[in-house]
Design goal:
By secondary structure, the protein is α/β, with parallel strands linked by helices. It contains 19 helices and 17 strands. It has an 8-stranded mixed barrel with strand order 8-9-11-12-13-14-15-16. The chain has a 5-stranded mixed β-sheet with strand order 2-3-1-6-7, with helices on both faces. The longest helix has 52 residues, at 2-53. It is elongated. The protein starts with a helix and ends with a helix.
Length: 497
């Protein structure tokens, strides 16, 4: 019996042993597989966490990671009794660049800007991209150190950036907040952002340190924006007109239409205050078209009464990028029987130098339509002779900054003479704005300017007052106006036939 049992036992034991070994091997393989899978999962989690912490376009950390780092810096600062700052950096007019050049070139600009900011930062690991064209950076030290960094950043970002065949000049607005003066580390980015937006509202291309009053100022701007949205509907806008005079005879020859806002509580508001808000929040389109319509309406009324005076209207950068701007102006002039040559489009030098397809196409259309095109604020931008030759311009306007200093500054006189010489070389008329003294007037006449404009001759006045001057309600008929502007009765009847 024992022999039989032994005979059966060993084969069974061997089979069990083989099975156990096989199971052990399978288990070992499963353990190894699971460990490998866990390592892969940990690797993927780590990679995903890193990706969530980093902006994909620029490679900078994101805002969440930046704020975690600020919390640690705040602990160190508290222990040492030291200061640090946060700079909120925003590229100016990024939306306009995106509209003009497309997303690909905008992305390249953002990558370049990120590299510049990292290069200026003392610790490039503490620079983040907040979103869009906005960045934040940590600066060790107080407000004075941060101002120096902000100044350097403004200079670096203002340098022209080569994007393929396009050379772009960018600017930025920077807000500065100081820890712990301006609150906890959680509030620093917000405070710096508020300071940055204050710079933006003032026109951009600058920096400032946060002040608690800024919150009230921003609220005021929001209220103004709310009122501005309703101003057209409530007919609160009015055009004033500032005459231009012939430099030799000092007789009125034309007038620039200037927008004014009759606010129900604030009174008469200058466009210098509300136009930047209108441009920033997309209101410039309807407001700009109202100005064109009203200017043509007034010119048409004067023409029916016998006064043919060229009217100038400021055209914004936003309007220059509208596909149908020229067609709108043409149809409006036809409706009020205004000749194209008696409508001046005043376009700032900075807008005129925009090398975008839409803007250049608008210029070509203006030239084909026969508009009188004026390059405004000339001398403050980066025009080249070659670029000016390509524009259908009829005149240059010397910026008032140079006119103001004519009597005291040889540099201003040299710049003014250079602009006059450049304009004459290109067969352009030269207009000087901001003329307020007889000394300025005499110098500009000596420089061979063609037309002058400023308080010395007239402040901007309502359309009715200009009409009274032209038709001699308070003075002799035509006093102060060039005779050729007035149509004879036969000419008037002929034009109305």
């Amino acid at each position: 019996m024992n022999t039989v049992n032994a005979t059966h036992f060993w084969p069974i034991a061997a089979s069990v042993l083989v099975t156990l070994v096989a199971l052990s091997l399978l288990l070992a393989n499963e353990v190894r597989r699971r460990k490998a899978l866990q390592r892969e999962i940990k690797k993927l989690v780590a990679q995903n966490t890193t990706q969530q912490q980093v902006d994909r376009l620029t490679g900078l950390i994101n805002l969440t990671t930046f704020e975690v780092a600020l919390a640690k810096r705040a602990e160190v600062a508290d222990a040492a009794g030291s200061l640090f700052c946060v700079l909120h950096v925003a590229l100016d007019e990024l939306g306009m660049i995106n509209d003009g050049f497309g997303q690909d070139k905008t992305d390249k600009l953002l990558i370049t800007a990120a590299e510049i900011i990292k290069g200026v930062a003392s610790n490039s690991e503490l620079v983040c991209r907040i979103g869009g064209g906005e960045f934040a950076m940590y600066v060790s030290g107080g407000a004075n150190v941060a101002r120096d960094v902000a100044h350097k950043l403004c200079q670096k970002l203002e340098q022209s950036v080569q994007l393929d065949s396009n050379l772009l000049t960018t600017t930025c607005s920077i807000g500065i907040a100081v820890y712990p003066e301006h609150g906890t580390h959680q509030k620093l980015v917000g405070c710096a952002g508020l300071a940055m937006r204050t710079v933006k509202l003032a026109g951009g291309h600058d920096f400032c340190v946060y002040d608690p009053q800024m919150g009230a100022n921003v609220r005021d701007q929001i209220n103004l924006l709310s009122d501005l949205r309703k101003a057209l509907e409530l007919k609160q806008f009015e055009l004033f007109f500032q005459p231009k005079v012939d430099a030799k005879s000092l007789q009125f020859t034309a007038a620039e239409a200037l927008l004014r806002w009759h606010h129900p509580k604030r009174g008469l508001i200058s466009p210098a205050l509300f136009i930047p808000i209108a441009e920033r929040y997309g209101l410039m389109g309807p407001i700009g078209r109202w100005v064109i319509e009203e200017a043509c309406n007034r010119a048409g009324q004067w023409k029916t009464k016998g006064l043919r005076m060229r009217v100038a209207v400021n055209i914004s950068g936003f309007q220059m990028r509208e596909d149908d701007l020229v067609e709108f102006i043409e149809s409006t002039m036809q409706r009020y029987d205004i000749e194209p040559g008696r409508f001046t489009c005043e376009i700032t030098e900075s807008v005129a130098m925009e090398n975008t397809k839409v803007t250049q196409q608008t210029f070509r259309k203006m030239g084909a339509a026969g508009f009188h095109v004026s390059i405004d604020d000339f001398g403050t931008g980066y025009s080249s002779l070659a670029a000016l030759r390509q524009l259908p311009a009829a005149e240059l306007k010397i910026d008032r900054a140079f006119v103001t200093d004519l009597e005291e500054s040889e540099d201003a006189r040299s710049i003014a003479r250079s602009i006059v010489s450049l304009g004459k070389t290109l067969n352009l008329r030269i207009v000087a704005e901001g003329v307020e003294t007889l000394g300025q007037c005499e110098l500009l006449v000596q420089m061979d300017c063609d037309e002058l404009q400023g308080y010395l001759f007239s402040m901007p006045i309502p359309a009715d007052k200009l009409e009274e001057l032209a038709f001699g309600v308070s003075t002799n008929k035509g006093h102060g106006f060039r005779d050729s502007l007035f149509m004879s009765n036969s000419m008037l009847l002929s034009s109305n036939a």
